[in-house]
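#onboarding

Welcome to the new folks! Below is a worked example of what a typical request in this channel looks like: someone posts a single protein sequence, and someone else replies with the predicted structure as tokens. Don't worry about understanding the tokens yet, we'll cover that in week two.

Example request:
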Amino acid sequence: MSSPALELANAAYDAHSWDEAAQHYRDADAERDADPLSAADLERWGLAAYLSGRDEDSDTARERAHHAYVAAGQYEDAARVGQWLGIALAVRGEPARGGGWFARVQTVLDEHGLHDSIWQLFLRVSAGMMRLFGGDPEGAADHFTQLLADSESYDDQNLAVLVRNGLGQALVASGRLEEGMRYLDDVMVRVTTDDRVLPQFAGLMYCAGIEACRRSLDVDRAREWTEALDRWCARQQGLVPYRGQCLVHRAEVLVMHGSWPDAHAEIDQVFSQLRPDRSNLAAAMAHYQRGELHRLRGEVDKAEASYREASRCGLDPQPGLALLRLAQGRNADAHAAIRRAVDETWAAHERLRMLPAYVDIAIACGDLDGARTAAAALRSQSDERGIPMVTAAAAYDEGRLALADGQPAEALRGLREALSIWQRMAAPYEAANARVEIALACRALGDADTADLELDAARWAFDQLGAAPDVARTDKLTTTAKRRPAPGGLTPREAQVLRMVATGATNRAIAKELYLSEQTVARHVANIFLKLDVSSRAAATAYAYEHHLV
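Example response:
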């Protein structure tokens, strides 16, 4: 007869209420010392505990489940639980323990003649991942290609997901990005739509996918995967799906989309999960990303401390540290550091992430030849990969170089292309930087009004983000030329929006024309109504004509 706690545990498990299930299983186990939980109950407890972040409970429950299955002669079930435990340990950063459990599974299968068991294929998945992380992506790709063929006759979605994930990761690591991404896209669809896929793999598969996006700077795909998986996670109560490096990758996506407080919270979560281990790559990446957030906010001392911690954990804190040196006015140090880092970095995707910083620093140091070389490399990668983020970076840097060469009209073409892409990608910080450069180009062409409008838009974006150094930089660049101020206390941008309202343009049309979001235009219109003490677009239009704004 099952206890009330066990009944509650199983009900919570079936409802995907993982934290509640894990607690009830623990209570049920405490009540049944003389009559221990069954192997199946222990296995369910192990999964619920894993999914709710109770790693120690999960490990213990799965170990007990494995031994209980063996004692009952249920060797396939014992292999399954041992495999899931081995994967959890390996991903957590305990490869020795994980490898020990894979060996244990192999022993059980061999001792009982289960040479054709599906769990032999799962063990081959683990062997392929070890090969991949051991620095042999081409060999791993061949391994998983064969494994994919061998697994096709098995109707097991967990195996299908793990094999395709391994193959996708190996192909991406081998430089076959497009081919690898197709497999990883397939994996994400299976994870988020097929209930037969074990929830344990949701966070793992997402992490693999986002790392692949990181390698190729494919921010659009990363955002899509984030949104899809977050919808899936919302249906799982008490779920802790993201761990370690995966949280850092999520933070990077959040930074790109301007959600800096949320990114900081993700980084804090990394440190709450990790043991104090300075050899941990996730800790190194978290320190570096925290440094980036501090740098963007102008918190120089905190940024310096975070970059130093990243270095102590074994991660070269570039290009962030070089950009910090540039912000401190230590241009020569910045130039030497970024040049060294680019020359030393052999991985193509890491070099690609450093090239925009190289261009920024080289231009600031007057090394236009170096900046042109880096910008040409970006353009080459843009033409080859067709990734919007790379295309935007290439166009932006070409625009900056044209401006440095005294060709503002030519600069505007590249800068506006970059702005358009970054706005579509919802990358507000990059878009604001493009607006600053557009303002400089317009000013060089004698168009002070447009320059002021662009600087006003950029400053507002920087202020919303909390990018204090960029707010100060934009204020410094704002023209001080004497001109008649707009009536009613309107800002230059508000006056521009009012003129367009007076022509009958809708918010959507204004947003499209000015490269703004409809939400931003609506906010400008609301501010205009407030400042002019009017309550309708007709009244605002009358005011515009009365004060000769149109």
